[in-house]
Amino acid sequence: VPDTVWTIVVAAGSGQRFGMPKQYEELGGRRLLDWALEAAKAAGDGVVLVLPAADVPAGDPSTVAGGASRSESVRHGLAAVPGDADIVCVHDAARPFASAALFEAVVDAVRAGADGAVPGVAVTDTVKVVDGTGAVVSTPERSTLRAVQTPQAFRADVLRRAHESGREGTDDAALVEAIGGRVVVVPGDPLNRKITHPDDLAWARAQIASSR
Ligand code: C5P
């Protein structure tokens, strides 16, 4: 029997760094979040969309209200994923250019036995760990670092257990790592950039214009 795959698309952020809720900004003739939704729908058996509470339409069980943090929004999404899902992907609505191949790569790595799989790319900047005063604490060896993206795929039972702790993290893999899960990195895609600042949206629009 093939695994049942569901994807949670988180779009409940307030866009604090962007300056406004960016998920509804126009990109290539549709809303930013529609890109992630379409890729997620093509990648598996179902999708749960997590939106700001005020934007959740009545009577649609596949759209749920987010929480105060990204992790809380994922937890709300997870509660709406059917119990028979074997693999759950979590994807940021803010990443319009995640390919079908990238979804396939993370899901395949979980099918192959990992608890979780995340796309990662080598970092080009040297990264420092700093304290609250800005003083450098350490410099991790750059060759050991990966900047990770979404979609991230997990065994459903492991992701549910990781979230039961109520822990907070900037991605879901961190919560799975914290309960001792084995998370692997698969090759990410430099084009799968997260739209965080207005400059990123300008870049995305230029990508689309140059591919037409
Ligand atoms: O804040 P960050 O850039 O890591 O957000 C990544 C994704 O998480 C975005 O798509 C954002 O809409 C979503 N998010 C959410 N609920 C929050 C905060 C962020 O769904 N409370």
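^ cytidine-5'-monophosphate complex. The mean pLDDT is 97. The first helix runs from residue 32 to 43.
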